[in-house]
Amino acid sequence: MDLSYTADEEAFRSRVRSFLDENCPAKGFGEMSLEEGRAWQQRLFRAGLLGAAWPKEHGGAGLTEMEQAILNEEFARANAPGVPGQMGIWWVGPAILKHGTAEQKETWVSQILSGEHIWATGYSEPAAGSDMFNTQTRAEPDGDHYVVNGQKVWTTLAHLSNWFFCLVRVPQENPKSKYDGLTVLLIEMNSPGLEVKPIRQITGGSEFNEVFMTDVRVPISHRLGAEGEGWKIISGALVNERSGIASGMRFEQSLHKLVGIAKRRQKVQDPIWRQRIADLAISTAISKYSGYRSTSDGIAGRLNPHLSAAMKLHGTTLSQNFSSTISALLGAYGQLYQSHAEVPEARQVSERLLGERAMTIAGGTSEIQKNIVAERILGLPRR
Ligand SMILES: Cc1cc2nc3c(=O)[nH]c(=O)nc-3n(C[C@H](O)[C@H](O)[C@H](O)COP(=O)(O)OP(=O)(O)OC[C@H]3O[C@@H](n4cnc5c(N)ncnc54)[C@H](O)[C@@H]3O)c2cc1C
Fold first, then answer.
1. 241 belongs to the catalytic site
2. Which end of the chain is more exposed for a tag (fewer CB within 10 A), N or C?
3. pLDDT digits (tens, 9 = 90+) for 300-333
4. Which residues contact 173 (CB under 8 A, 6 or more apart)?
5. How far is ligand 1, taken at its centre, from the CA of residue 303, in Å?
6. Which of 170, 195, 230 is the last residue of a domain?
7. Mutate which of 90, 125, 154, 189 to test ligand 1's pocket (most atoms within 8 Å of Cβ)?
8. Number of folded domains in the chain?
9. Are 372 and 345 within one domain?
């Protein structure tokens, strides 16, 4: 693979860098209000830096794989925050572009990038997490509508969203397989009968929710793909979700921070800490080169959808290892949930340590990623 950049790519990098120098908010994603987050998203959209691979006619930036990789690197360098419409950008928009009718693309796609529409994702239910085939939410046809009844759970940002990318089951007379009837509906969050209840998290925040649907009427024209195509659509969306989670990780910055704290706490000569730091540095390099490999596969058109499972598994585990190592380095200060004169980063470190427990669960648990790696990448026999 060629790791050098062309003159055009270098010019693109300079453009992105100066844009971020002038526009990047000082606050992290979690510290911004919805309005601030939307304003940031709109600035990126107007600068043509969102929806990298989306066609220009739908507001996309129409960037190459390499430009997308440069964009990711520059965002990491500037520590740029995410945007509220991230889920829509990572997987809802691509799913509508792939499976939607011309009218659906016209209605939804460009509003995703502009931040006008914020999407939540409704797959998980109390008895259907890893096992999505157990989806119980029912959508019964009634004239030109479906009537939807059921409950979703762990629905990230549902309280801020205006649209819902929702997996339901349309009852079948004689279902032949567990896939039968699984269907994706695009539901307006303010539909009568749809209620959102926040769930309090271990960090004290409430980013996810339960969503209850009672006789919610959804126009049949809001169905994505055909009835029964739900699993095909969702499995593609999950690949995009896992790639998105993996590509959002910023390990070189974590390593830099870790080494800084180790120096400050006079641990860099200690062989045990040196070994732990070296292990993390090696894993960081593995992550970086896997990212290059994935970019190179994309440029060469070598489709490897299951690499996202391996990268999500590696990335989320590594991220947790960084937070537990940094917390341990801080000693007793690592237990604080507030800033302290001695350790200004204490609050941030504790928040990250607790918050990241969730990342080996979100988007499919580590065990599920291991099953995918074993069966689809390594070709081991199925259970
Ligand atoms: C931060 C966060 C955000 C989320 N956001 C959303 C969202 O926006 N929308 C949404 O729909 N969902 C969301 N989820 C839910 C997430 O997708 C589920 O939690 C996840 O798929 C696991 O499902 P579950 O919690 O029901 O656990 P279960 O599926 O019940 O799993 C319990 C345990 O059993 C293990 N297990 C299950 N099946 C297997 C198997 N076949 N082989 C080996 N081990 C297995 C699991 O690994 C896990 O350890 C989010 C979760 C988190 C943590």
1. yes
2. C
3. 878 777 888 999 999 999 999 999 999 999 999 9
4. none
5. 26
6. 230
7. 154
8. 3
9. yes
